[in-house]
Amino acid sequence: MATEEPIKFDPTIVTDDELRESYSGPASLSNRMLITKTPAGVRLTFMEIQAGKVPSVFRTAVLLSYQDAIALRDLITDQLKEIEAQLKDVVPEAEKKAVEVPSKNG
Prior knowledge:
Shape: extended
Order of helices and strands: HEEEH
Number of helices: 2
Number of strands: 3
Strand content: 15-25%
Distance between the termini: 91 Å
Strand order of the largest sheet: 1-2-3
């Protein structure tokens, strides 16, 4: 009897079904993120800071194995390279356009 090869998961390949499924639920605004290292992996907690409200509002949390957390880091780094370069160009332009305000002493 022939043994079947196990299905190999390649995290770099996203199927059309996975992409559709990724949009099947709501996306919450998150502007506060916390990372907690645990024996089982990394817990990523996403929260929202709302004006006039303390403390931040919990949105969701996920627990990733260390291997998956590293893969997530690499994915985010790769996807944001172009945006990060654009932001670096925007900040110096804004600084060039800044108006110098004379001091009251001089």
